[in-house]
Design goal:
- The protein is of the alpha/beta class.
- It has 2 domains: 43-128, Rossmann fold (3-Layer(aba) Sandwich), CATH 3.40.50.10860; 153-277, NAD(P)-binding Rossmann-like Domain (Rossmann fold), CATH 3.40.50.
- 45% of the residues lie in helices and 15% in strands.
- It has helices spanning 2-17, 21-43, 58-74, 89-100, 120-126, 138-145, 154-165, 185-194, 209-213, 258-261, 275-294; strands spanning 48-54, 77-83, 107-110, 174-178, 198-202, 218-221, 239-242, 246-248, 251-253, 267-268.
- Strand 1 (48-54), helix 3 (58-74) and strand 2 form a beta-alpha-beta unit.
- Helix 3 crosses helix 11 (275-294), helix 7 (154-165) crosses helix 8 and helix 7 (154-165) packs across helix 11.
- The radius of gyration is 20 Å and the shape is globular.
- The structure holds nicotinamide-adenine-dinucleotide.
- Residues 155, 178-181, 183-185, 202-204, 206, 209, 222-225, 243-246, 275-276, 279 line the site of nicotinamide-adenine-dinucleotide.
Length: 298
């Protein structure tokens, strides 16, 4: 009997360690859904998000499908524009320009990566910054840099929100981010800094990576290498956030070796069911912000 109780106790203690992105995002979904309902009374139409998908990248198709599903669940109109793999840059630019001035469209998102004949930056620069719900337009990146954000980048904002929901404070913490992409690593480091963390950014050219990761109170991994982070690389009781999504034989793996790291960490995010879920709900929040901006509701 005693053994069983001990097992139950250790199971519940262990499950409390997991920062459950599914659960947190479901609560946020309800909040956003209610906000949309009350805004609709004033605006007389629902927010609308248009997602453009170029080509047949299987992972992109899944992401776009998930974005549409969540949009519809919470009352956001969703349109997916599917374009051929061989679409040229001007064709895509012309489609975006039409959406930029369409009064019924609040948010525009071009799913990345794009086929190689299309310059990503040219496309991101074409999106109306007021409808740039991914927060990738240079104007929005600049506003974020100076601490006056119009939108927040979805994955980094989702991570900060997850930590907040678990009452994990950032002020004065040593936070190490592995990865320096424009989508995750760099904007995340900036948001952490704005939350008064002491931030170290590591990347593929960082020397003695383990020396830095072992000092982290909070360690965030965004590199795209399955099971890269192991327990010898972390400090006892540190908080581990796994951004990685790696598909191997149709199964998803994070950048963290979850089983290996679990015991030593104080909190950890799973893959799937972690950061990915938060990214989508933050996109929904940005779409509502764009809808408010568009309809001059501050
Ligand atoms: P990326 O693929 O553009 O770049 C990888 C980064 O990792 C680079 O900055 C590189 O310097 C660094 N890196 C690579 N190998 C390293 C090593 N051995 N040591 C230290 N640093 C190394 O990055 P990205 O677009 O940010 O994607 C990273 C991962 O996050 C991918 O698995 C991607 O699928 C995933 N991702 C998940 C979400 C989500 O919502 N969960 C969102 C975006 C990206």
């Amino acid at each position: 009997m005693e053994n069983i109780n001990l097992k139950v106790l250790s199971f519940s203690k262990n499950s409390q360690k997991i920062i459950n992105g599914t659960e947190i995002s479901e609560n946020l979904k309800l909040q956003v859904k209610n906000e949309i309902l009350s805004l609709k009374n004033k605006i007389n139409r629902s927010p609308k998000l248009v997602v453009i998908l170029v080509g047949e990248n299987p992972a992109s198709k899944v992401y776009v499908g998930n974005k549409q599903k969540t949009s519809l669940e919470i009352g956001i109109q969703s349109e997916i524009i599917k374009l051929d793999e061989n679409t040229n840059q001007n064709e895509l630019i012309n489609i975006i320009k039409k959406l930029n001035v369409d009064a019924n469209v609040d948010g525009i998102l071009v799913q990345l990566p794009l086929p190689k004949q299309i310059c990503e930056l040219e496309i991101l620069k074409t999106i109306n910054p007021l409808k740039d719900v991914d927060c990738f337009h240079p104007e929005n990146v600049g506003l974020m840099l100076i601490g006056k954000p119009r939108f927040l980048p979805c994955t980094p904002a989702g991570i900060i929100e997850m930590l907040k929901q678990k009452n994990i404070t950032l002020e004065g913490k040593n936070v190490v981010v592995i990865g320096r992409s424009n989508i995750v690593g760099k904007p995340l480091a900036l948001l952490l800094l704005q939350n008064n963390a002491t931030v170290t950014i590591c990347h593929s050219k960082t020397k003695n990576l383990e020396k830095l990761t072992q000092k982290a109170d909070i360690l965030i991994v965004a590199i795209g290498k399955a099971n890269f982070l192991t327990k010898d690389m972390i400090k006892k009781n540190s908080i581990i956030i796994d951004v990685g999504i790696n598909r191997i034989d149709n199964k998803l793996y994070g950048d963290v070796n979850f089983k290996d790291v679990f015991e030593k960490a104080s909190f950890i995010t799973p893959v799937p069911g972690g950061v990915g879920k938060m990214t989508i709900i933050m996109l929904m929040k940005n779409t509502v912000s764009a809808y408010k901006i568009h309809n001059k509701i501050i």
